[in-house]
Backbone:
């Protein structure tokens, strides 16, 4: 289905929610995840994402980094990957070099994901680990930005649990930013308990978003 900025998204058949904001899938990737985590300013961003989904956030981060000529390291966890056909269907206008990298993701996207997908080049690297985030192994002191992007806590509570938030804290560098669309009170309290400084910020197409910072 088209979102308000013309980019496409999809409703998950089991969770019953859209993969991206209906107010704009590309807008959400750019305004929420890229900008609120300062990825678009960082000289060598390391992004850790919960929920690769349709790869919208990856493509927005990559477009920004390729344009700036900075090296991007992107590590994403995805427990219920979509098929290559679905990824192909959700097109967004990309610059030629970024489209070429995305084509590489599509070609290498596994039919039966078991081992992680790893792609690298002069632009940086992408690793997608097809793991449930509640059981995954995370790097330590690694991420400069965390994109916390599962479905909402109401329908998809596991990735928002304190144990996962604690893992996200230990996997981030001091000063790292975390961004998400949810402002659920319990989640924000748990994020604070995990060690992040937490604040609500004005959203686009939604009243508020949440930003955390590892201090
Ligand atoms: C809102 S979508 C992510 C959209 C994506 N970030 C993008 O840019 O297109 C949420 C994703 O989280 C994944 N997910 C939900 N629960 C998960 C879990 N426990 N472990 C790993 N992935 C999970 C879903 O399969 C889905 O792809």
Residues:
């Amino acid at each position: 289905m088209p979102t308000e900025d013309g980019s496409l998204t999809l409703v998950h058949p089991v969770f019953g929610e859209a993969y991206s904001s209906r107010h704009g899938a590309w807008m959400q990737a750019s305004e929420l995840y890229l900008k609120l985590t300062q990825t678009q300013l960082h000289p060598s961003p390391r992004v850790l994402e919960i929920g690769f989904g349709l790869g919208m956030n990856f493509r927005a981060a990559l477009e920004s980094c390729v344009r700036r000529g900075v090296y991007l390291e992107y590590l994403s966890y995805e427990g219920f990957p979509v098929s290559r056909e679905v990824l192909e269907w959700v097109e967004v206008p990309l610059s030629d070099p970024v489209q070429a990298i995305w084509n590489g993701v599509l070609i290498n996207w596994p039919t039966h994901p078991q081992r992680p997908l790893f792609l690298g080049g002069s632009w940086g690297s992408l690793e997608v680990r097809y793991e449930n985030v509640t059981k995954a192994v995370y790097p330590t002191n690694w991420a400069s930005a965390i994109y916390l992007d599962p479905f909402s806590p109401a329908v998809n509570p596991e990735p928002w649990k304190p144990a996962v938030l604690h893992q996200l804290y230990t996997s981030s560098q001091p000063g790292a930013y975390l961004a998400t669309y949810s402002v659920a009170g319990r989640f924000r309290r748990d994020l604070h308990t995990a060690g992040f400084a937490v604040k609500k910020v004005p959203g686009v197409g939604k009243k508020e978003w949440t930003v955390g910072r590892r201090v």
